[in-house]
Amino acid sequence: MKSDDSVQRAANRVQRKLSARPPKQSRILITCFIALITAGASSWLMLRSPEIHCTSLAPLTVLATLAAFLISICFRQMGRFPDKRSRLILLVCLLIAAGTLFEDFRFVRRYREFCDQLQQQMQQSAANP
97-119 in b/e burial notation, b at 16+ Cβ within 10 A? Predict the structure, then answer.
């Protein structure tokens, strides 16, 4: 009797999975929107003026982390959306997020040492008036 119940429950679970609704397409659009906003914010922080702003390094690090998170979301959604159109859109989002991550990393790495030296000089001049 117990064996029949477990078999029937397993069959019901399989039937529910087969009749489940396909994933919503709006999830892909939300992912693309977040990827574009992240890339736009990143480029705005890097290109807003010709001077180096040491205060923009921390927000760029946060945006790079968000871009890495978006890359993982794109890979996860590729498994849920089997059609080619959705996968192509997710690939574009993945490339945008990867480019954002790469450029943010390069920018922060290039100017981190300069900003740290500048901060040390300012602390030394404040300590020795």
Answer: bbebbebbeebbeebeeebeeee
Residue 25's CB is within 10 A of a number of other CB atoms, namely: 13
Would you tell me how many other CB atoms lie within 10 Å of the CB of residue 121? 10
More confident residue, 22 or 118: 118
**pTM above the 0.70 mark?**
yes
Number of other residues whose CB lies within 10 A of the CB of residue 45: 17
Could you tell me the pLDDT band of residue 129, with boundaries at 50, 70 and 90?
low
Q: Is 70 exposed, middle or buried (0-12, 13-18, 19+ CB in 10 A)?
A: buried
Determine the Cα–Cα distance for residues 68 and 107; give it in Å rounded to an integer. Answer: 16
pLDDT at position 80 is 87
Sequence-distant (≥ 6) Cβ neighbours of residue 64 within 8 angstroms: 42, 100, 101, 104, 105, 108
Q: Report whether 38 contacts 63 (CB < 8 A).
A: yes
